[in-house]
């Protein structure tokens, strides 16, 4: 018997229940992984509240990423051995001491990457990889805007985008978060509680605006985000921490300069095994070479997942947060 966090009904953090969970043996193509660290992401709150439907209904074990050790393998698994250190972004079920997972979703952790780093960075780091390298291929001379710059994805984004040679503008919600973002690659950080970020972007860019805007906030920022784009710029909406973007007339994109809009997800960008391996390899490379530093600023015990969710939703966290079994 193992322990896991389960959701039996949708709601606030109190619906996260720490309880016994049976441990299955892996079937063909699967692996049993004993977790050593588990990643916490805002995405987890969407499944908790029911904003995103649980693929297999309730009860649900949340969580999409973790690191650990392979304990057993089902038939037909190649490239892995019992005892291998691995990490993943995969099917829901990470908030557990142990879990069975499709083996093709696992990647081996190199010696240069710790288990805690692996758990903390897979979803967030590979999100940054596809945003910067594939959704919009950022290059030297580009100007980009990223909302929530002091969050886990934001701190990775700032470092990586700066390495690519972009001018990186961020928004954050307090003086402390502004300074944190500035220390992680951002050339300019706007405190949105004190300044109009649209006006500041105009000022910073001399009226030229941005080549791309990356927005995971949603309802509160999308209109301003569109106003920060130069003609034929790209609006990347990849989250909705303030609520979903309401329906709007797509003619607005024409009026604001033939703008492009996309709503990407990580899982669409790593659906194929070769894409997963390439994305993970790119992430491991920038971390191992010191280009991107992974900041684990909060650690909670797995049984304290409810408090971790409260702090995350109250914007009390910065950088990356992990749960420890």
UniProtKB/TrEMBL annotation:
Molecular functions (GO terms): mRNA 3'-UTR AU-rich region binding; NADPH binding; quinone reductase (NADPH) activity; zinc ion binding
Residue intervals of the Enoyl reductase (ER) domain: 11-323
A Pfam entry, by short name: ADH_N
Keyword Oxidoreductase: yes
Keyword NADP appears in the UniProt entry: yes
Keywords, comma-separated and alphabetical: NADP, Oxidoreductase
PROSITE patterns xrefs: QOR_ZETA_CRYSTAL (PS01162)
InterPro entries noted in UniProt: ADH-like_C, ADH-like_N, ER, GroES-like_sf, NAD(P)-bd_dom_sf, QOR-like, Quin_OxRdtase/zeta-crystal_CS
Full protein name: Quinone oxidoreductase
CDD domains listed in its UniProt record: QOR2
CC terms in the record's Gene Ontology section: cytosol
NCBIfam families named among the record's database cross-references: PRK10754.1 (NF008024)
């Amino acid at each position: 018997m193992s322990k896991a966090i389960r959701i039996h009904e949708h709601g606030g953090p109190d619906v996260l229940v720490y309880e016994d969970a049976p441990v299955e043996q892996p079937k063909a193509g699967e692996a049993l992984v004993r977790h050593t660290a588990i990643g916490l992401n805002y995405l987890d709150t969407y499944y908790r509240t029911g904003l995103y439907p649980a693929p297999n209904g309730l009860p649900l074990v949340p969580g999409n990423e973790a690191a650990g050790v392979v304990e057993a393998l089902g038939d037909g698994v190649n490239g892995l051995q019992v005892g291998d250190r691995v990490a993943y972004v995969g099917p829901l079920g990470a908030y557990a001491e142990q879990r069975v997972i499709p083996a093709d979703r696992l990647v081996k952790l190199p010696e240069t990457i710790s288990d805690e780093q692996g758990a903390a960075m897979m979803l967030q780091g590979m999100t940054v990889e596809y945003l910067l390298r594939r959704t919009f291929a950022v290059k030297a001379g580009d100007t980009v805007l990223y909302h929530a710059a002091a969050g886990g994805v934001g701190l990775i984004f700032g470092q990586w985008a700066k390495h690519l040679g972009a001018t990186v503008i961020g928004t954050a919600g307090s003086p402390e978060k502004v300074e944190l973002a500035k220390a992680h690659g951002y050339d300019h950080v706007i405190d949105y509680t004190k300044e109009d970020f649209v006006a500041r972007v105009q000022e910073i860019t001399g009226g030229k605006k941005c080549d791309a805007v990356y927005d995971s906030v949603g309802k509160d920022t999308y209109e301003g985000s569109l106003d920060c784009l130069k003609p034929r710029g790209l609006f990347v909406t990849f989250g909705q921490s303030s609520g979903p973007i309401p329906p709007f007339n797509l003619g607005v994109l024409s009026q604001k300069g033939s703008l492009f809009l996309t709503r990407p997800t990580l899982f669409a960008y790593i659906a194929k095994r070769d894409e997963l391996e390439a994305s993970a390899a790119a992430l491991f490379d920038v971390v191992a070479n010191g280009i991107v530093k992974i900041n684990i600023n909060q650690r909670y015990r797995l049984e304290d997942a409810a408090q971790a969710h409260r702090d995350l939703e109250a914007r009390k966290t910065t950088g990356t947060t992990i749960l420890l079994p």
